[in-house]
């Protein structure tokens, strides 16, 4: 199948902090594994991060480090187009068009918005971008006429919003956009926080013990797993009892890190306890991340490489983005 015939994929990640195991298992690993199956567009969603990062030096550093980490995880710039969202003004232009077409009620219903709002008590510190974020995200996806959006389960609602908005636009102005589908892998669709399994592992949560950063040192990784919340039961089994969500999280990470199946893992821990499991998951995670961390260091030391990759990515992304935006402008009567 030629590149053009393969389903097109668009997904993004914010440079809002270090990449963690939730980003990796929920999204990035799938991007890497499926690179040959799809025609891939992966975006550093830097304008989305402006809601939380208000420091130019930090933003510049985060953007570059995130690219290095994606490359270290296995994104191959030959097979995937990697680019910075902010380098293509087409994203913000289409976002404005979509903001104008987005019913306020649709935006106010978004769980992530409600969740983040509940954490911020000062209204003065809540940016409008937190509310309108899905309109920019819809622009990111629809500009590329993406068929599929590989994401973690936390993004399901935003992709549904994108589909609804695309259908609304098509309805009003005539057939323009492909309706994209979320692609969510069941096994690790949601990686909860290690300290509060009711919440997702997240970059912006101030409790750093709840997440494993991909650049965490081995002793830090092991310590975070040792402190992870479990329960007062004893047997190490995969259970969907909500009271045992912390245990299921650790077991699911262990499964993802080792590639072992559930029966093998349960057999491995018969007669052993949570302490043994925590040591094992710590060691397996350290071993899995070791080559990624080494590759990350190598890429960061290669000064011109990241810029070269991103310049080329922006050129390739622009070809598609411009074409879609021209079509949209004609439909809405701006040309
Ligand atoms: N805990 C998670 N489990 C599974 N998937 C996750 N993703 C994020 N957290 C988890 C997936 O990672 C991709 C990139 O996410 P993002 O950085 O663009 O945005 P996010 O969902 O807002 O991630 P964070 O880490 O929680 O960042 P903050 O705290 O800044 O909001 C997405 O596909 C997402 O589903």
Descriptive report:
The chain is mostly helical. The protein folds into two domains: 8-190 and 304-332, HUPs (Rossmann fold, 3-Layer(aba) Sandwich), CATH 3.40.50; 208-297, Tyrosyl-Transfer RNA Synthetase, CATH 1.10.240. Helices cover 55% and strands 7% of the residues. It has 13 helices and five strands. The chain has helices at residues 21-33, 46-49, 56-73, 90-101, 104-108, 111-119, 128-142, 156-173, 218-227, 245-258, 262-268, 274-301, 303-332, and strands at 8-13, 39-44, 80-84, 148-150, 181-183. The strands form two sheets. The protein has a three-stranded parallel sheet with strand order 1-2-3. Strands 4-5 form a two-stranded parallel ribbon. Helix 4 (90-101) packs across helix 13 (303-332), helix 7 (128-142) packs across helix 8 (156-173) and helix 9 runs antiparallel to helix 12. The mean pLDDT is 95. The structure holds adenosine-5'-tetraphosphate. Adenosine-5'-tetraphosphate (AQP) binds next to strand 1 and helix 1.
Describe the secondary-structure layout:
Layout: E1 8-13, H1 21-33, E2 39-44, H2 46-49, H3 56-73, E3 80-84, H4 90-101, H5 104-108, H6 111-119, H7 128-142, E4 148-150, H8 156-173, E5 181-183, H9 218-227, H10 245-258, H11 262-268, H12 274-301, H13 303-332
Parallel strand pairs: 1-2, 2-3, 4-5
Helix pairs in contact: 3-12, 4-7, 4-13, 7-8, 9-12, 10-12
The structure holds adenosine-5'-tetraphosphate (AQP).
Adenosine-5'-tetraphosphate (AQP) is lined by residues 12-14, 16, 22-23, 26-27, 45, 52, 151-152, 154-155, 190-191, 200-204.
């Amino acid at each position: 199948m030629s590149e053009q015939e393969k389903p097109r994929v668009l997904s993004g990640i914010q440079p809002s902090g270090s990449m963690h195991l939730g980003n990796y298992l929920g999204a990035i690993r799938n991007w890497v594994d499926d690179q040959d199956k799809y025609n891939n567009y992966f975006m550093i969603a830097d304008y989305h991060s402006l809601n939380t990062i208000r420091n130019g030096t930090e933003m510049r550093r985060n953007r570059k480090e995130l690219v290095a980490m994606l490359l270290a995880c296995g994104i191959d710039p030959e097979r995937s187009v990697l680019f910075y969202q902010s380098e293509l003004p087409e994203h913000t232009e289409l976002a404005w068009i979509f903001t104008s077409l987005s019913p306020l009620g649709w935006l106010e219903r978004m769980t992530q918005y409600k969740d983040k709002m509940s954490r911020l008590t000062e209204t003065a510190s809540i940016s409008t971008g937190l509310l309108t974020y899905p309109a920019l995200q819809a622009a990111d996806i629809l500009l590329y006429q993406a068929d599929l959006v590989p994401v973690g389960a936390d993004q399901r609602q935003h992709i549904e919003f994108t589909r609804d908005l695309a259908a609304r636009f098509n309805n009003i102005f005539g057939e323009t956009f492909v309706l994209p589908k979320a692609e969510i892998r069941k096994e690790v669709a949601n990686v909860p926080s290690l300290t509060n399994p009711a919440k997702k592992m997240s970059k912006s949560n101030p409790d750093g013990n709840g997440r494993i950063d991909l650049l965490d040192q081995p002793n830090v990784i092991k310590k975070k797993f040792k402190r992870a919340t479990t329960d007062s039961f004893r047997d190490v089994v995969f259970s969907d009892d909500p009271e045992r969500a912390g245990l299921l999280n650790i077991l699911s990470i262990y499964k993802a890190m080792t590639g072992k199946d559930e029966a093998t893992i349960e057999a491995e821990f018969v007669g052993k306890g949570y302490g043994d499991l925590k040591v094992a998951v710590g060691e397996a995670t350290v071993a899995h991340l070791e080559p990624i961390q080494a590759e990350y260091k190598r890429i960061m030391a290669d000064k011109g490489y990241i810029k070269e990759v991103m310049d080329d990515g922006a050129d390739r992304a622009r070809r598609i983005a411009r074409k879609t935006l021209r079509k949209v402008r004609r439909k809405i009567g701006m040309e």
